[in-house]
Design a protein that fits this description.
Layout (H helix, E strand, L loop, with lengths): L8 E6 L6 H8 L2 E6 L9 E2 L4 E4 L2 E2 L4 E4 L5 H5 L6 E4 L1 H8 L6 E6 L5 H11 L7 E9 L8 H13 L2 E12 L4 E11 L4
Parallel strand pairs: 1-2, 1-8, 2-4, 5-7, 8-9
Antiparallel strand pairs: 3-4, 6-7, 9-11, 10-11
Helix pairs in contact: 4-5
InterPro entries: Methyltranfer_dom, METTL24
Protein name: Methyltransferase domain-containing protein
Length: 194
């Protein structure tokens, strides 16, 4: 994943839940990594290492200083009392002064909100320049709402139509009498970019 000579590899990892393993591994091969997680309420923005930077904001399809997430097991551990600061990727890149730099890898694990964020990234055109997109797709019994499922399906197929092909796929299903959780960890390569 190292860039060409003189080129910087820039990686964004969204929602890390105190686990910097991916971030540290990417930094070890020469990438500059920005880690984002608005739920790490006890962690301030900081420089973790020479190439890893942490920001306590989240990625969203809109800029919002008081975003209140859907309550699940994850959010129950970190209640969003005053909401979480969320920003569109375009806004985050502007805030960091990286609007003109090549984002090499974008990694999302945002508990069901990836559908709206990915649609925003497709609509804005920003995803078309990203060579690798790693995402954990989620479907819960109650989220996204049933009326939004066709939008999620459309988003999934728009990625393929845009030239993203998956090179890694892992899945997880959990069912109880009252709930269903489906997750799929998918790593895509942008064939039109590479």
């Amino acid at each position: 994943m190292k860039g060409n000579e003189g080129e910087k590899s820039f990686v964004a990892d969204c929602t890390i839940d105190y686990d910097f393993a991916f971030d540290d591994a990417m930094a070890a091969i020469g990438c500059t990594v920005y880690s984002f997680d608005p739920s790490m309420l006890d962690t301030a923005d900081h420089k973790r290492g020479d190439r890893v930077f942490f920001k306590r904001i989240g990625i969203s399809d809109k800029d919002d200083d008081h975003f209140v997430p859907r309550v699940d097991e994850y959010v129950q551990k970190r209640p969003a009392v005053n909401g979480w600061p969320m920003r569109r990727l375009q806004t985050i890149l502007d805030l960091l002064g990286h609007r003109k730099e090549q984002l090499t890898v974008l990694k999302l694990d945002i508990e069901g909100y990836e559908w709206d964020v990915t649609r925003d990234l497709l609509d804005s055109g920003i995803l078309s320049s990203v060579p690798q997109f790693l995402v954990e797709w989620h479907l819960f019994t109650d989220f996204p709402p049933r009326e939004r499922v066709p939008d999620a399906v459309d988003t999934y197929f728009r990625l393929r139509d845009m030239g993203f092909q998956f090179f890694h796929f892992g899945r997880f299903f959990r069912r109880t009498p009252t709930s269903l959780i489906m997750q799929a960890q998918v790593a895509y390569l942008n064939t039109k970019r590479n």
